[in-house]
Each structure stands twice: as structure tokens, then as C-alpha cells.
Specification:
heterodimer; A: mainly alpha; 2 domains; 15 helices; B: alpha/beta; D-Maltodextrin-Binding Protein, domain 2; 17% strand; Spermidine/putrescine ABC transporter permease (chain A); transmembrane (chain A); transport (chain A); membrane (chain A); transmembrane helix (chain A)
Chain lengths: 315, 383
């Protein structure tokens, strides 16, 4: 067909020519022909499956027969507010917030250095160094951390040799932070999360800092601002969109994760592990579907907050 | 419009769900020629063809003899097995007791005709007509392997084997003078409720627990109370064998329920680890090779079920996995297992073991498995 069209221009009345004329006269038709297939894909496969899943949340799960029946009920969604289920939501949400804040604090200096003080080869080195952990499998990294944090592991060895043993014991004793050992404490789980999601925070901040015009910094210095003032009043406000964009990654990834909570940290499920247990172990698909709604709602709220911070202004 | 769409979607999913559960096949009357292929869902290490270790191969011989090419899909949990069998496309599954009744109730597997399995006569009489694979006098598959959930302990802390599960359930000082808090583990699965029930069966006879998998409301409440009191003592709820082995080596954990697999592994590494079955008895697992309700290769499947009950195959699997054969002759029939293999793995402890099975409500008399799951999740989370 193609070669035909190229080698021989069709006569004015030929079907091909009439078709191309039609497309030219009606640009909307042309556009819809291009857009309908991907939109159908998006609508049917992505939104369709998501809606089917959420719709299952209204089904009834019979405790006795362990069967799902299509009788509609709101029981699954009200069950989310039972104390034990609500614990899971609060546990996951507080971890996601803590991880996002800590990642931002750790990532900012690295991103700042990358954006302002590296050129050519050093910049490439930093890019690779930040991305390198992502080349290794996520599961391997999580397992490696269980060994690093173990009682006989590297982390504790350093703590002991620095004479910080009592400090660690004190920290592990704080409820909500500690646990029986470092690898079964909230602190340990938090460290692993921050490590694993850090690249997702560094890169957006670095991108936003690179867009920051150097002339603004010069102007700030000319007007007599001390470096600290420049940082607080010029650089930080302008990098908020980058930090917000990075925190979307760290927040939503922590919210949905179910492997790190399983390997490191104290007993108690996360939303991800709960969904996994509900649909896998008991086949309670309706409850699993109800739990799936939790991260969707939380992320929607989070996105609306972040939007106010201007994370999407640069899109 | 929107309401129509969602109604249509829900109708579609319902139709899909019901259409799967309509099958109920008749057992085969005679085994014909093989179909040339066989697809098995199995625990890792259950179906070996000499790729991990040349000596451990019980597939190649089967393929040569029957012409059935064996494909194995390994599954790490009982839940994964149930979900793979629900999706279909497999002929056989090596289902543990906490999966088998769910598979039967969900009509994912079909009864078999034991007359077609020549090696059926080899079967350990203790396993015949066991409730986790025989339902309404119909036999759903051939037993494959079994094993106890032993009490694994650090032999430097316990100079003598602990005689009771109470070292895990009640706060106390261990023989080395330090408390057990933060140094013991429990299993991260609702089936562990049965372990607590088994302990209460002996220590609190007034509750009248007969079967740790069938608990009425009062018994269930007492069991949950015990598990709630246990929660602060727990270092970690284990579910990954590698993590548990590392916890015993590096984290100072000294006692936990475990499988012989971890015990053998740690002993091979010369760690000070031993295991015992305390006086209250133990829970255990017994796996059954079950035939899918819509198996595409039933003849090959029957041939495999027969093959799998040979003493040599049974003994080799037991040696590789640290489990026990379903065929007593296997204790003498395998060089890999050795003369003492069966004794080491606990062959004589059969009567002390309450085998895993899915708790069922039976019309509201007992607490069903779905509540076990929800309550155990709450307990692990500290509620």
C-alpha cells in the first residue's frame, strides 16, 4: 500500500485520494483515529479493571462458606474502621509520611551538590552512583538489609565500637520507634525504606535545582543576602515543586509496599500485606478490594495537597 | 449510563466466577496411553530432575518410562497453590492440609480411582483415609510427604531439650537466666492458632479442646487470649525460612516453631541447634498430590501418582526435603535417605502430630478460617 502511494500518485477520483481529502477536511476525524485506540486501551484495560476491582468491594463475603456472593453491601468499607484494620492504615500512613520527610532531608544536599557543583565526568559519576542501587533487584536489597541490621551485623558492630550501645538500647525502648532488636524495630524498617526510595527523591529535586537560574542567586548576593538567607528564601521555595514531586514517589511507593514490612520491622501488617493476605490466604476479594481503596484515597488527598505546593506548575 | 456499565461489569465478573465452579468430573475408569505432557504445581524441591544435585532425580526416569514430559511450576505458599489451581491449566498440585480442603470445597480438584494406582498398596496405613484428602468417602489424590512442625532451639541455651511449648507461650526465664522476651519466634500464618490450641488442649483440659482445628467460640476466645499474651514476647513472626535461619544465627533468637528443613540446614552449618517435639505434641503438614478437576493430561497424571508412591522416589524426596515418606518401605528403599533418615526426621512421632487442615465452620459450630485470618492479623499488630 505504502509503496503504491509513493510511487504512483492516485488519480483524483481514486478511493485513496478521496480518503486523504476527507482526513484533511475533517481534522477531528484524523485526531480521533489516532487517539481512540490508546484511549480504548486505557479505558478498558486500566480503568475497567480498576473499577471492577473496586466494585468487588461491595460484594458480600460469607464467613461460613468462605464464598463471595454478588449481594451488595457496605460492610467491607465500614470494616476498614475496625480498630485492628484502622491500625494498619495508620501504621502505613505514618511510615509513608516519615519516609517522605526523611528522604527529602537526605536527598536535598546531594541533589544540590549534583546540580551546582558537578560538571561533565563528575556529574555522570553522580548520576550513575544515584541510579546504581536501582540496577540491583529490590528483593536482594531488602534481604541484604536484614543482614546489615542483624544483631551480629555491620550496623550494630559500628554502634558497639563507637560506644553507642546504650544509646541504641534507649532508642529501641521508645514505643512507636523501637522494637526488640534493630532489625525488628520501626527504626530499622524506616532506614530500609529511606534507602530504597532515596533515588526517587534525589532526581526530581536535582532537576528542579538545575532549572533554577544562577542569576537569581547572584541577585540575592548582590542585594546583601547571607548564604543562609539565600538558601531559605530563594533556593528552598523554588525547589518545593521538585521536593513535592519526589515525595509523591516516596509516599505512594511506601504506601503500597508489602515486601520490606515483611522482612524488616516489628510484627503488624501494612496495607499492601493486608491486601495480599486477604485475597491470597482467605480469598476474601471484597475486603481486599476495600483495602485497595485506602491508598487510592490517601494518594488523592496527598496529590491535592502537593498541587497547592505547586508541584505541577512546571509540567 | 454509568449505572448500566457497572451493572454489566459486575454481571460479567459474577458469570466468570460461577462458570469456574460448575465442574464435577467422574473418576477415570482406566488409564490409557500418556498424553506426552504433565504440568505440576509443587513446593520448591519437591519435584527434582537432578538440576540442583545430580543424585536427586526422580523425574528423568518417569519421563523415559511413560513419555510424559514433566513441567513444574513451583509455588511458595499454600495460597499461591490455591490461586494457581483456580486459574487452571495444571494437572497436579502437591497441596498441604491447609490448602487441600479449600481445593476440594472449591471443586478445583477431582476424586481419583485408587484401583488404577498399583503402588497404592505401599501407602502408610496411618495416612489412609486421612480427613485432609478424603471427603465423603471419596479420595482426592495420593499422599506425597509429611512432616512435623518441631520446636527448634539453641542447644547452648537449652542444655536439655525443652519439654513444653510453654517456652514460647509464657513469659519466663530460660535456662541461661535471661528472660525469653524478644528471643522467641512464632509462625506468621493464621494456622498458628492451632499450635496455641494444641498447647491449651493439654495445659487447660477444662476447655475441652478435642481438635485444634475445630474450636468453638469459648475455646477460640481462650486461644486468642494466649496468643495476645504471647505477642510482646515475640522477636519476629517468621514466614521466610532463610530469614528465620539468619535470626537464629545473628539475632540471638533461641527458640521457635520450625520445619525440619531449617533444623537440618542449621545443623549442617555446625550451628548449636537441635529440635524436639514437646510433650503437648505438635502440629504438622501432610501433602497430597491432587488432580485438577479439568486436567488436560489425566493419564499422565495417574502415571505420575503411581510413580510417586514408589519407595525409592519417596525416600529420595524425603532425603532432599527433610520430610517423611508416605510409604514406609521408603525408609529402607533409599540410599540418599540412609538407614536412620526416617528416625531423624520423626517417623515415629506420627501419633503426636495434629495435621494441618483448613478450619471449617460446619454450619456455624466452629470458628471458620476467615476469622482465624482476621484475628491473627490483629494479634500480630498488637490488638
Amino acid at each position: 500500500m505504502n509503496t503504491l502511494a509513493i510511487t504512483r500518485t492516485p488519480a483524483p477520483g481514486s478511493p485513496l485520494r478521496r480518503f486523504s481529502n476527507l482526513l484533511y477536511r475533517r481534522p477531528n476525524l484524523y485526531l480521533s483515529m489516532l487517539l481512540v485506540p490508546p484511549l480504548l486501551w486505557f479505558g478498558a484495560i486500566y480503568l475497567g479493571s480498576l473499577l471492577t476491582l473496586l466494585w468487588q468491594g461491595f460484594y458480600t463475603f460469607d464467613d461460613f462458606t468462605m464464598a463471595v456472593t454478588p449481594d451488595l453491601t457496605l460492610a467491607n468499607f465500614t470494616a476498614l474502621f475496625q480498630p485492628s484494620n484502622f491500625d494498619i492504615i495508620v501504621r502505613t500512613l505514618s511510615m509513608a509520611i516519615a519516609v517522605s520527610i526523611a528522604s527529602a532531608i537526605v536527598a536535598f544536599p546531594i541533589a544540590y551538590y549534583m546540580a551546582r557543583y558537578t560538571r561533565g565526568k563528575t556529574k555522570a559519576f553522580f548520576y550513575i552512583a544515584v541510579m546504581l542501587p536501582m540496577w540491583a533487584s529490590y528483593i536482594v536489597k531488602a534481604y541484604a538489609w536484614t543482614l546489615l541490621l542483624a544483631k551480629g551485623g555491620v550496623a550494630q558492630w559500628f554502634v558497639q565500637h563507637l560506644g553507642l550501645g546504650p544509646v541504641l538500647q534507649f532508642v529501641l525502648g521508645i514505643p512507636g520507634v523501637g522494637g526488640s532488636t534493630l532489625s525488628t524495630s520501626h527504626l530499622g524498617r524506616f532506614l530500609v525504606f529511606v534507602y530504597i526510595w532515596l533515588p526517587f527523591m534525589i532526581l526530581p529535586i536535582q532537576a528542579s535545582l538545575e532549572r533554577l537560574p544562577p542569576s537569581l542567586l547572584q541577585a540575592s548576593a548582590d542585594l546583601g543576602a547571607r548564604p543562609r538567607q539565600t538558601l531559605m528564601q530563594v533556593i528552598l521555595p523554588l525547589s518545593v515543586p521538585g521536593i513535592a514531586a519526589g515525595s509523591i514517589f516516596t509516599f505512594s511507593l511506601t504506601l503500597g509496599d508489602f515486601i520490606v514490612p515483611q522482612l524488616v520491622g516489628p510484627p503488624g501488617y501494612f496495607v499492601g500485606s493486608m491486601v495480599y493476605a486477604q485475597q491470597g490466604a482467605i480469598g476474601n476479594m471484597p475486603m481486599a478490594a476495600a483495602f485497595t481503596l485506602v491508598p487510592i484515597v490517601l494518594i488523592a488527598i496527598y496529590l491535592s495537597i502537593v498541587k497547592r505546593l505547586g508541584a505541577f506548575d512546571a509540567l | 449510563m454509568y449505572a448500566h456499565k457497572t451493572a454489566l461489569l459486575s454481571a460479567l465478573t459474577t458469570a466468570l466466577l460461577t462458570s469456574v465452579s460448575l465442574q464435577a468430573a467422574e473418576p477415570l475408569k482406566a488409564v490409557g496411553a500418556g498424553e506426552g505432557q504433565l504440568d505440576i504445581v509443587a513446593w520448591p524441591g519437591y519435584i527434582e530432575r537432578g538440576e540442583s544435585d545430580k543424585a536427586y532425580d526422580w523425574v528423568t526416569g518417569f519421563e523415559k518410562e511413560t513419555g510424559c514430559k514433566v513441567n513444574v511450576k513451583t509455588a511458595a505458599t499454600s495460597d499461591e497453590m490455591v490461586s494457581l489451581m483456580t486459574k487452571g491449566g495444571y494437572d497436579l498440585v502437591t497441596a498441604s492440609g491447609d490448602a487441600s480442603l479449600r481445593l476440594i470445597a472449591g471443586k478445583r480438584v477431582q476424586p481419583i480411582n485408587t484401583a488404577l494406582i498399583a503402588n497404592w498398596k505401599n501407602l502408610d496405613p496411618r495416612l489412609k483415609d486421612a480427613p485432609w484428602y478424603v471427603v465423603n468417602q471419596q479420595t482426592y489424590g495420593t499422599p506425597y510427604q509429611w512432616g512435623p512442625n518441631v520446636l527448634m532451639y539453641n542447644s547452648e541455651v537449652f542444655k536439655q531439650a525443652p519439654t513444653s511449648w510453654s517456652v514460647l507461650f509464657n513469659a519466663q526465664d530460660l535456662p541461661d537466666g535471661k528472660p525469653n522476651k524478644g528471643r522467641v519466634q512464632a509462625y506468621d500464618g493464621p494456622i498458628y492458632i492451632a499450635d496455641a490450641a494444641l498447647y491449651l488442649k493439654t495445659t487447660k483440659p477444662e476447655l475441652g479442646i478435642k481438635d485444634p482445628y475445630q474450636l468453638d467460640e469459648a475455646q477460640y476466645k481462650a486461644v486468642l487470649g494466649l496468643l495476645r499474651a504471647q505477642q510482646p514476647l515475640i522477636h519476629r513472626y517468621w514466614h521466610d525460612t532463610t530469614v528465620q535461619m539468619s535470626d537464629f544465627k545473628n539475632e540471638g533468637v533461641v527458640a521457635s516453631g520450625a520445619w525440619p528443613y531449617q533444623v537440618n540446614g542449621l545443623m549442617n552449618e555446625k550451628q548449636p541447634i537441635a529440635s524436639t517435639i514437646p510433650k503437648e505434641g505438635a502440629t504438622g503438614w501432610a501433602d497430597t498430590t491432587m488432580l485438577h478437576a479439568e486436567a488436560k493430561h489425566p493419564n499422565c497424571a495417574y502415571k505420575w501418582m503411581d510413580w510417586s508412591l514408589q519407595p525409592k522416589v519417596q525416600g529420595d524426596v524425603a532425603a532432599w526435603f527433610g520430610s517423611l515418606p508416605a510409604v514406609p518401605a521408603a525408609c529402607k528403599g533409599s540410599e540418599l535417605l540412609g538407614a536412620e533418615g526416617c528416625k531423624t526426621n520423626g517417623f515415629d512421632q506420627f501419633d503426636k502430630i495434629a495435621f494441618w487442615k483448613t478450619p471449617q465452620a460446619e454450619g456455624g459450630k466452629f470458628v471458620p478460617y476467615s476469622r482465624w485470618t482476621q484475628d491473627y492479623i490483629a494479634i500480630m499488630g498488637g490488638r
